[in-house]
Amino acid sequence: xxxxxxxxxxxxxxxxxxxxxxxxxxxxxxxxxxxxxxxxxxxxxxxxxxxxxxxxxxxxxxxxxxxxxxxxxxxxxxxxxxxxxxxxxxxxxxxxxxxxxxxxxxxxxxxxxxxxxxxxxxxxxxxxxxxxxxxxxxxxxxxxxxxxxxxxxxxxx
Amino acid sequence: xxxxxxxxxxxxxxxxxxxxxxxxxxxxxxxxxxxxxxxxxxxxxxxxxxxxxxxxxxxxxxxxxxxxxxxxxxxxxxxxxxxxxxxxxxxxxxxxxxxxxxxxxxxxxxxxxxxxxxxxxxxxxxxxxxxxxxxxxxxxxxxxxxxxxxxxxxxxx
Amino acid sequence: xxxxxxxxxxxxxxxxxxxxxxxxxxxxxxxxxxxxxxxxxxxxxxxxxxxxxxxxxxxxxxxxxxxxxxxxxxxxxxxxxxxxxxxxxxxxxxxxxxxxxxxxxxxxxxxxxxxxxxxxxxxxxxxxxxxxxxxxxxxxxxxxxxxxxxxxxxxxx
Lengths: 157, 157, 157
Prior knowledge:
Three copies of one chain form a homotrimer.
Chain A: H1 3-10, E1 28-31, E2 34-40, H2 64-85, E3 91-102, H3 110-125, E4 132-138, E5 147-155
Parallel strand pairs in A: 3-4
Antiparallel strand pairs in A: 1-2, 2-5, 3-5
Helix pairs in contact in A: 1-3, 2-3
């Protein structure tokens, strides 16, 4: 097992089978030393979207469910990277995560929710996991998911 | 004519003059072996935004108009790539499509609508057209367009 | 001082200390000859988000505040690039700006608002500032900011 997967295991994370795209595209593309990962929904290890990870982030609602969903989405991002490069130890740098959250009304939770994804990546990759990120609140996401996370990685040549 | 344009012609698609940006930017930028394409609206071959391709994707509304709009946006993405590299046969890989749909209320149509773009690229480029993608539902798009599609391509050095 | 910063100074722009990320990520990442900049909020030179640059772009509202906010966000994007590469003269090309505006209801102001960012970059970088861009209207942004701008740059090896 790779060093990064060891660290994920220590965090209690096992990479799932990468989610099959819900339409006519693929989960990740390698181009030179870049890997571009499709927007990942917060499917659980069972491949299902839990009810708690659907709907919208609303005012007054706690951030825990959205944060957990973002973490799951990030796990699925990593599963796609592994599927396309074979071994997460080939990752030189997590360049960027893009987070979209389905929201209703204003709220102060967007950055904290996206930390569910950022924290996982930071814990798993350490220095290599220091990434750029963009977080926005959108009107709707596929399958009514509460979040969607995409990624950009640099890998060894 | 290039092989890819031949295939587009067989699909009934002629690349239009690339749409002039509606503001102070350009349609696509080449950087090394990457081509980054600006978000493209679903202008038709006549350079106009049809009423059917404006407004919002709403619950209970069929997906056909949004899917057709996404296809048109993807055609415009390809026109921008051609304008910057000269020949679509230089495309090594369609790396990523990003799709934004203007939505109101929940609906199950986002992935199917974005397939309008993905299917065109897959039909035109075959294996090279297997791309990553992110699809989100947003609150509003320029010119009240129902969708906007951006792209990232790898080309020959 | 670098040539680009001279030009910015002539435009009345002094690069601020790059804004500290509001969560667990960093402002920009260098990968090879690419620099990827996190979504930047319209913090002013004092590091504060002015009330005029929060809330939503609404029908009937003028575009001036949103345009000024986009310009500030772009200034912050450049500050992040400088922080990671040391000197804006190393920028070979502004590849892409992505603009997200918090909106309510339809309006015709999105492209004009995003020009606040595009114009600054064009004025500062000239030919090298001719960039691709994507502009969308979203439901909510971190800290209730009216806009968020991310960037992609090519730099010298």
